[in-house]
Model the fold of this input.
Amino acid sequence: MSVTLGNIDAVVSAAVQSQPIIDIHTHLYTPRFGTPLGGASGHSDPNGLLLWGVDELITYHYLVAEVFRVVPASVLPYESFWKLTKREQADHIWKNLFVERSPVSEGCRGVLTSLMKLGLDPADRDLNKWRKHFEQQDPSKQIDKCMEIANVTSLTMTNPVFDDNERARWLADETVGTDPRFKAVLRIDPILRAWPTAARKLSQWGYDVSEQISQKTIEETRRFLRDWLKRQKAIYMAVSLPPTWRYPVANDAGSTMLEQGVLPVAQEFGIPMAMMIGSATQVNPSLKDAGDVVGKSDVMSVIHLCSRFPKNRFLMTMLARENQHELCVAARKFGNLMVFGCWWFLNNPSMIDEITRMRIELMGTSFIPQHSDARVLEQIIYKWDHSKQVIAKVLADKYKETLATGWRLSEDEIKRDVKHLLHDNFLNFLK
Done:
């Protein structure tokens, strides 16, 4: 089928909507990691890691931060809010952000989109009715349903091995990571951000390391990474870094462990290193997970890293809008750098539109436009629904500009391009 200016919008939209997606970065888990909401299975686990259901959607930290703008801590103190049950917190957020104000923020609209796509009627405004619906669902079947609605075929977990709750589950049950719908990622933040803390943990776990970095410590850290990469069958390693992160830094434990511990093992296993840079954590600790902000990061540090380690591959996303152009230019110079996603505070339609346009203009289709970063299962529905609408619009506009030159496009060529963006670019970068 030939593509014209008259049908390009419909053709691109259909291609984007029909293309199966690999979600390359989430904070979701298999049911074997436990879930606070047992649903129809009845197996609730207060410390479970798989979050799902309407109360989890509404109490997500995006909306916790937003509600404290409406009902400030001078009215409802932070400590009083955190003493509320999950259901009471959801009721408070629902009342103040959805009922007494119109739910026009992206966080609020996302909740409504997810409910609507699941067949529930947001106009009901009945939390208890929706709670009963979710309580009747089986968590594993709910995963299938959400993946089907979002057209996601694979969910990539984030597995922080230094989290005691998660680590214990990997050690207690060899099957936790065997669900074919999920792929594991070894998250190693303390090794690069807080080496003394990481060293104490590794020593407790039977690895002969010390806070003073020696060749023995480096070898034992490599052994630790190998052990967990094998246990998890992880498809890449990952770290989140603050905007103050710099590389290289002389006599710095983080730089040394990255150079001599982490990257050699990543190269040995043939896997990328994912780096998410720009989150300044806990500027307001009273907000807990909602207390982080964004800061401008240093792209030259990324350039130094890609240049010094050409045999390593780096998946890279940055949180500040101000970093996006410089990061795109850097990616044009290094084939071992893959830019991905519109992360966290950038996961808003206006930002996704701007960033995706810029990336296409600078990199064509050789990047990964989005990941969900979902921490609550049903979020994959709205995050992909909203993102795909924007991605399709941007692609259609760019194709129109190309057609205006006299170039001709076929429907199959557009499907090919979309498949690169939403599926193949990631798989090919893993090879």
About this structure: The first helix runs from residue 8 to 18.
